[in-house]
Write a structure and sequence with these properties.
This protein is an alpha+beta fold and 208 residues long. It folds into two domains: 16-123, Sandwich (Immunoglobulin-like), CATH 2.60.40; 158-203. Helix content is 33%, strand content 27%. It is built from two helices and ten strands, in the order H-E-E-E-E-E-E-E-E-E-E-H. The longest helix has 54 residues, at 154-207.
Length: 208
């Protein structure tokens, strides 16, 4: 009897649930995704976002209730999400781990029909962009040629100095010899004049 009532309850819930076709969404890695929940209206008991897991298990993400339609309650999760306008689900910086089927379930009041929207999200693989490393161009440095400093040839200079000094020495010797000869000649002339004068004076004395 209990199994029959449970079957009837599940069957009636499925009849009262309005399903929509699963919508596919693609996103790039680290992009932002917004999943809408259209046609919610204002007369509802709850609006809940789920993410389907393995074996048809669902994990609650966030939920609005008729008591507070402005701010939802967040389920405990390792994934940080946000809510947008019109009861949409916002997932920032998605990664391949966020791929999967998301479900927005609208709980209707008594006598109404529940509504469910499903989105299959596919996030592309994250590719690390290649880091461009600028290559520093080789700087051409001009090579200064070696300046050859001539080594002074002291022997040659000494010889040149001697060659230059020899004519001057010769001139000095010549002038010195000429000057000395003039002096000697002057002395001789003076002596001769004195001898002549002496002889002249003696002859005069003898005459007297």
């Amino acid at each position: 009897m209990i199994q029959t009532l449970l079957f009837v309850h599940i069957f009636s819930s499925q009849l009262l649930m309005l399903h929509s076709a699963v919508q596919s969404r693609s996103a790039f890695c680290r992009g932002n995704v917004t999943l809408p929940c259209p046609g919610v209206g204002s007369d509802f008991v709850s609006v809940t976002w789920y993410k389907q897991r393995i074996e048809q298990h669902k994990r609650g993400i966030l939920r609005w209730s008729s008591k507070d339609k402005l701010k939802p309650d967040f389920f405990k999760s390792n994934r940080s999400v946000h809510y947008g306008p019109d009861y949409s689900l916002v997932i920032n910086a998605v990664t391949p781990a966020d791929s999967g089927t998301y479900e927005c379930e609208v709980g209707a009041r008594v006598g109404g029909r529940n509504k469910k929207e499903e989105f299959k999200l596919d996030v592309s693989a994250c590719v690390t962009p290649a880091v461009w490393t600028p290559v520093t161009p080789a700087v051409w440095t001009p090579v200064t040629p070696a300046v050859r400093t001539p080594v002074p040839n002291t022997t040659s200079d000494h010889c040149r100095l001697q060659v230059q000094e020899l004519p001057a020495l010769r001139i000095a010797v010549v002038y010195g010899t000429v000057g000395l000869a003039k002096i000697v000649l002057s002395i001789i002339i003076v002596l001769i004049i004195r001898c002549v004068q002496t002889k002249s004076s003696k002859r005069r004395q003898q005459k007297w």
